[in-house]
Amino acid sequence: MIYFTSDLHLGHKRIIGDFSQRPFLTIEEHDQHIIDQINRYVGPKDILWHLGDFSWGDVGHYRQRIKCRQIHAIIGNHDKRGQLERNFTTVQSTKELKLGDQKIFMSHYPHVYWPSSHYGSIHIYGHLHYYREELMDLMMPGRRAMDVGIDAAFHKFGEYRPFTEAEVLTLAKRPGHHDTQVERGMQELWNRQRNRQRDDKTKKSTQKIMP
User: Fold this and answer.
1) Cβ distance 114 to 96 under 8 Å?
2) Do 206 and 167 share a structural domain?
3) Can you tell me the distance from the alpha carbon of 204 to that of 206, in angstroms, rounded to the nearest whole number?
């Protein structure tokens, strides 16, 4: 099976600070729980995609504690490419994946538009720790995009764990936010601004040539 996760932040002490959603007393307790949860769901022969911010410090130390042999990394803002390349199967900034007939675009950061987003592609990302999901759903109703970080998994399932491919395909299979009322309203506003600027230019040009 294929699994997706993001933002483990292993070894990152601030992740259990005052601003965090993770109620662990020590970073060691946090790290052990997150790693145990991955090993509980993801087997040695499965495939795991990690979409950024894997660890704070020794990547190899944490990577060797995860049983899955094939882990692909998308680079996050806290990651160092060299450390990832020494410990993961592949490393890239973004990746377009196909699950059957379904295209999936992966990035650490959320996008408003992405490759093939007008043609049914799903976008998954991390970085935001679920904080902006409801806001983005309001701004872009029906968007085929979702946070797959472990904080998002906790909000949806009550567990810090990876998402399965079936969960991603089910949860993100929405109508899409293109050509919605919100997008049409934004387009109409942009057209009015463009027309107003064009009228202002025409008026100024007319004033210049008048005697």
Assistant:
1) no
2) no
3) 5
Q: Are 71 and 50 in contact (CB under 8 A)?
A: yes
Residue numbers of the domain that contains 121? 2-176
Kind plus residue range of the DSSP H or E element containing 49: strand 47-50
Residues 172 and 183 in one domain: no
Three-class SS state of 122: strand
Instruction: Give this prediction's pTM.
Output: 0.84
Are residues 24 and 123 part of one domain? yes
Domain co-membership, 183 together with 126: no
Supply 102's token pair: 């379904």
pLDDT tens across 28-59, in order?
A: 999 999 999 999 999 999 999 999 999 998 99
Same domain for 169 and 111?
yes
Residue 31 CB partners (closer than 8 Å, separation 6+) = 10, 11, 62
The whole-angstrom distance between residue 49's C-alpha and the CA centroid of its chain comes to 12
Query: What is the CATH number for 22?
Result: 3.60.21.10
Residue pair 116/99 in contact by the 8 Å Cβ criterion: no
Instruction: DSSP for 192-205, please give it.
Output: HHHHHHHHHHHHHH
